[in-house]
Amino acid sequence: MTGDSPDTATPYVWQTPKNIVQKELTEQTEALAWPGDQALIEWIAHMPIYRKLSRSRLRMVLEAVEDHLLGWGTEKGTYQETRVKRHSFHIEHLMPQEWSKHWPLPEETDETERDARVQLLGNLTLLPQRLNSKVSNGPWTGDGGKVENLRKHDNLIINRTLLRQYDDFWSEGEIDSRTTALSEIIAEIWPVPEGHAPLAIREQKPASGSARIDLADLLSADFIEGGATIYPRSEKFEGLRATINSEGAIELGGQKFDSLSAAAKHLTGRPTNGWWWWTIEVGSDQHELREIRQEYLDAQGCDDTEDDED
Q: pLDDT tens-digit profile of 238-252?
């Protein structure tokens, strides 16, 4: 098969990522819609895409971006004889999911906010398996860092473009900027067909700011109750108690904190992921609050399954 026109008689394995998505989205339903370009860009900006899409679908999207950067399906054309090899690359988080060792948290950034940013499209790329394993949780710059290894061992255009723009620093702002850039490429790859009326996309919660998942969300959905007592996991703080009030704030020793992480940092003196640090009593059992948060995510339809991609 050549060209970019859909061929419904051709098995998916022989079609390009562009054609597969195009075929699916022209048969749109409320759950599977072809949105307008701007709506798509705005939606991707806040979508935790690593958790929302299956690895195979997400890899297909990144492969399509690589093909586009190579010139396939564009007016300028390409000098490449073949497209990027399918199903041969792993999905890598540029800022790792386990970021605490090499990626200091800015004072003004909340841990939960960073955890959400890590799952955005702009923080993801394709890498060969061996390189993925080598750089997985490493720093961005310095000896053995991701920038150095990408320069030495990788030749994908998506990563060359990344290094031209962000070779000295990678953090929340850079993730947002690259998310926008990639979403604009996706809109170019799959533009709305002429005469096609896009369906509206359901509103997506931002990955940061006031709408991120917090205790108030769990309270309003009845996953926890106002007045619930929470306990530190650490034996160092055995016997200490805090209370979740009806507004979702933490009351501790006469002080009030607006998040679990803020209360944990007050006690430990360093940035601490409060969802992991605090436990709550459910019946006769103690549960980490991250487990309750995960139940809430599952109920909202978020796929939080991790695999060995990085």
A: 889 999 998 889 999
